[in-house]
Each structure stands twice: as structure tokens, then as C-alpha cells.
Amino acid sequence: NAGVTQTPKFQVLKTGQSMTLQCAQDMNHNSMYWYRQDPGMGLRLIYYSASEGTTDKGEVPNGYNVSRLNKREFSLRLESAAPSQTSVYFCAMGAQTGLNTEAFFGQGTRLTVV
Amino acid sequence: LAKTTQPISMDSYEGQEVNITCSHNNIATNDYITWYQQFPSQGPRFIIQGYKTKVTNEVASLFIPADRKSSTLSLPRVSLSDTAVYYCLVGGENDYKLSFGAGTTVTVRA
After folding, report:
1. Which pLDDT does position B2 carry in this prediction?
2. CA distance B29 to chain A (A)
């Protein structure tokens, strides 16, 4: 997971609390991503940022907001956490390789909402 | 990204070759095919990418027929440590919306 750092690694929230998941990359790549992965399920894209200053919704954006603070950092905010948001959250950065984007992932944040 | 279809799961035994086929009928001319591998409790990692014919690296081979409407990831002589979820993605230069789907869960048994 070299290059992408997520904080925190673990978090427990009470329903209704807010928090921000932080993600930083040190490889100067343009695109960044936030995914969630529920137990036994595939990755679902929450939001992505193709470049600094832009953000777009993914497949499951409801209940989340993002900020592309600068080229290095892309944060994910839960304004009012719900038990349905219990999941593992992965941040990724994208590098252009040829005509495609290769993604590099962080180690994940395990979030539990009680 | 082009829509892809791959099997939900596959079982194998140590030492066998595992072939996972991904269908992508609406692949565009400039699209590449990329495969990722995800172990439990880890984020996915890139394993191989190709445009046409065959690509091989130290982990896997990728076979792409001439019409490019499908591709096959081949894992030679698998071991227990190859148990993972494998994702197929198809996209091109401006495809930043990387959606992974459910992937194929490969279980290798002793």
C-alpha cells in the first residue's frame, strides 16, 4: 500500500455522530477515490476526484461528502453516521498507464457505527 | 467504463491452473483491460493489464482474443495463497470512474 495513507485505521461511532476519514498520497497522481466494502461484498465507489479541484459522485454517494483539499489529500466526511455505514473504507489513487488508470489502494479504515 | 461480466466464484485445488473469463461486449477501441486481486482485509492490487493478444508477468497471464469482447486471466499452478477476489475492469484514457463490481471469488483448496 505504498503511497496511500489512510487515517484512522479503526473507528467506532455512535449513530448521528460525524467524522472525517483522511487520505493522502505521495505520488503526485491526479485521480483519487473513496470506496466502501461491506462484508462478503465487492467494492462500491462512493466519490472520486479526477483531478485537483473536481469531485464526482460514484455509485453510492448518499450520506457522504468529500473534499479534494489539494493534489495530495482527499477526505471523506460522514455528517450523521448511520449503522448502514458500517463498512471498510478504502481510499485509492489513480495513475495513468497507457490509456487506462491503474489504482493503488490504502490499507483501509474499518468503521463501525453503533 | 465498459460493462463487464465475470463469474461470481470458482473453486480450485493447489497446483491447478485457474482461468477466469470476463465478458466485455461493448469494449471501446481505446479501452484497456485490467485485472486486480484482493486478499481479505486488504485493498485490491493491480496484477495485469493488456490491450490485445497475450500479456504475461510473474503473477498471471492475460489472454485477449482478436475481437476483444472477452478476456481470460490465467493463474498457473495456484497455491492456497492465491485465494482472493479477482476483479476485471475495462476502460480508457478518460475513464476515471473506476467501478469494481463484485469480482470473482477464487478459493484454492489443499
Report:
1. 75
2. 11
Name the residue with cell 484454492: B108
> Torsions phi, psi of A58, nearest 5?
-100, -140
Contacts of A42 in chain B (CB under 8 A): 85, 87, 100-103
Cα distance between the two ends of chain A: 29
Helices (H) and strands (E) in chain A, counts: 0, 11
- β-bridge partners, B87: B36
Edge to edge, the sheet with strand B18-23 lists B18-23, B70-75, B61-64, B53-56
Instruction: Tell me whether B51 touches chain A (CB under 8 Å).
Output: yes
Q: Highest mean pLDDT: which of A99-108, B80-89, B96-105? A: B80-89
Residue A58 and residue B37: Cα distance in Å, rounded? 21
Model pLDDT, residue A99: 54
For residue range A55-107, what is the model confidence (pLDDT) as tens digits? 999 999 999 999 998 999 999 999 999 999 999 999 999 887 655 678 899 99
Kindly determine whether residue A58 and residue B97, on different chains, have CB atoms separated by under 8 Å: yes
B101 grid coordinates: 463490481
| Interface membership of B40 toward A (CB under 8 Å) | no
Residue A98: its pLDDT value, please? 55
Contact at CB, A59 and B85, closer than 8 angstroms: no
Is B3 an interface residue toward A (CB < 8 Å)?
no
Contact present, B105 and B85 (Cβ < 8 Å):
yes
- pLDDT, position A2: 57
Tell whether B102 is within 8 A of chain A (Cβ): yes
